Predict the structure.
Amino acid sequence: QSALTQPRSVSGSPGQSVTISCTGTSSDVGGYNYVSWYQQHPGKAPKLMIYDVSKRPSGVPDRFSGSKSGNTASLTISGLQAEDEADYYCCSYAGRYTLVFGGGTKLTVL
Amino acid sequence: EVQLVESGGGLIQPGGSLRLSCAASGFSVSSNYMSWVRQAPGKGLDWVSVIYSDATTYYADSVKGRFTISRDNSKNTLYLQMNSLRAEDTAVYYCAKGASGSYLFDYWGQGTLVTVSS
């Protein structure tokens, strides 16, 4: 149950696009299409942004998109806005009814 | 409206026990899978445990044998019994609701802080 690997930080200017990667193994990210992404602002609970690799819950802007290739999933945020500045976590089903999170990525909007 | 409200956190000495509660409203805890997820101060999210609708339970290796997840359907409440607590268990503990057909958490509580220290 090792944590998925995410970059510690990414940054971008308003209007730009950024991509956050999430690398696991064939036992988690690569083995299932059950990758989800969560946004967390300081002092707040996480919020679901993407599930099943690329699906968006209702209410999440279409600026947020997800994808996966092999053992690496990615979250792309286009048209960056100031309110997107937050921590982002990936999560994957890891088999045997367990889940695993990534270490988290701090997004800074310059 | 779905709501999750955790309680029961506090300061506890190493080796002690604590029981967290998560009162749910707007849905039935017995009809969905529910998890506990924790976050140590300044650190990332860490999946702790899950209870499925058929009452089967699973745990992260770091808490297996020390923590027990359960629910009271009549009170629509989720619990986490934590025994043999260690300093590294210090964290904000969130309860989270799963959604059938996938593995995701669509609703989260506000969290309750557990501090293990002498």
The radius of gyration of chain B is 13 Å. The interface with chain A takes residues 35, 37, 44-47, 50, 52, 56, 58, 60-62, 94, 96, 99, 102-106, 108-111 of chain B (CB under 8 Å). Chain B has a mean pLDDT of 96.
